[in-house]
Amino acid sequence: MRRLLLALPFALIPLAHAAEHSHDHDHDHEHGSLSAHEHGVARLNVALDGQALELELESPAMNLVGFEHAATSDADKATLKAARESLEQPLTLFSLPAQAGCSVASTELESPLFGRKEHSHEHTKEHGHTHAEEHGHGDHDHEHSDISAHYQLSCFTPAALKTLDLNALFQRFPDTRTIQVQLIGPSGQQGVELTPSNPRLNF
Q1: How far apart, in whole angstroms, are the C-alpha atoms of residue 18 and residue 35?
Q2: Cα(115)–Cα(98) distance, rounded to whole angstroms?
Q3: Could you read off the pLDDT of 103-119 as tens digits, one per residue?
Q4: pTM surpassing 0.90?
Q5: Nearest-CA neighbor of 148 among 47, 33, 18?
């Protein structure tokens, strides 16, 4: 079940595309992409269909690494690598009920700062770090940079998926102050805004 979210005809899709394309068209306008790129604010799309749980996080790089330029200094490269390693562990950042028995089927990270799309299945996350850091900044080295993370999980007992707690994500990336969540699941569609003081989504 590839890209479950893209197969669902509801409101989060235009939002995701707006965030994706805002930098292609609006980066020359200081405020042109504010609705899709706002520091401190991230977007999370969540879809549950049977045992398949899909998470799609879109965030300004500033929220996650503290800068949006190409990582050239050793300090910036180390910060970027550490952030990516954290993003490659969704079950640490996104706390799900243990009874649901969720495991990660794949992760996909994308950002101009990474230089190219990173895709991994379970045990392949160690490949490609150095290459991604050293190549491909080029045309994307402009004012705004986003980081996207797309996860596909398989949950053995989806009925036990009652909550999704983002406290660990807020703790790991404290510059992220608000996460706008759109969820589609067994109870239908809902939108909710989560913060460090209110980090839990109820399915």
Answers
A1: 9
A2: 35
A3: 999 999 999 999 855 56
A4: no
A5: 18
